[in-house]
Specification:
By secondary structure, this protein is mostly beta strands. Helix content is 13%, strand content 34%.
């Protein structure tokens, strides 16, 4: 059995209006996607599936934590995720070449379809929720920061050892670290 089948919604049998779906996303989910950058996460997804006559409104609410290393000091932290994404699904034989950027939040499916899989959308939304810079220590109070002080000291060059200093790089030492 396909492990992603649980993320398929049989919309043909749904009544018109809003139906809620709940998903718990963890490591097993991300293992199903080749090359996934997310390896350790616990995210709850609430999907409000609003079925209309010729389209669907999908509202994804993501809440949970993703385990990420801090880009500054390398400490592993649980980064909080709290995001909301909306997608419109329309019935149309729309070709990808004709799609313009103004319709980026619109997905087209064939009128012959009976199921709609939200697995790829959930995967992409979790990845979109990850910040570009993983300096997660900045989001914490000073007394809660688990920063690796040894690494930060090396970055600040506060060790006091000047014997192996290459003076061609002196201008870079003027950069201040916060």
């Amino acid at each position: 059995m396909d492990p992603l089948r649980q993320y398929e919604i049989a919309f043909v049998g749904l009544k018109k209006g809003v139906t809620n779906f709940n998903y718990h996303i963890d490591d097993k989910f991300f293992a199903l996607f080749e090359g996934s950058l997310v390896e350790n996460a616990k995210v709850d997804v609430v999907l409000k599936f609003d079925k209309q006559q010729s389209f669907f409104n999908l509202q994804f609410q993501l809440e949970g934590k993703i385990h990420l290393p801090c880009d500054r000091c390398g400490v592993e932290l649980d980064y909080p995720v709290d995001s909301e994404y909306n997608i419109v699904v329309k019935f149309d034989e729309h070709h990808e070449e004709e799609q313009d950027d103004s319709l980026a939040d619109v997905v087209y499916i064939s009128r012959q379809e009976t199921h709609f899989s939200v697995a790829q959308l959930i995967y992409e939304f979790v990845n979109l929720s990850i910040p570009i810079n993983h300096v997660t220590c900045d989001n914490l109070a000073e007394e809660e920061k688990p920063c690796d002080q040894k690494v930060l000291d090396q970055l600040k060059n506060t060790s006091g050892e000047e014997s192996n200093v290459d003076h061609r790089w002196d201008d870079l030492t003027k950069i201040k670290f916060n």
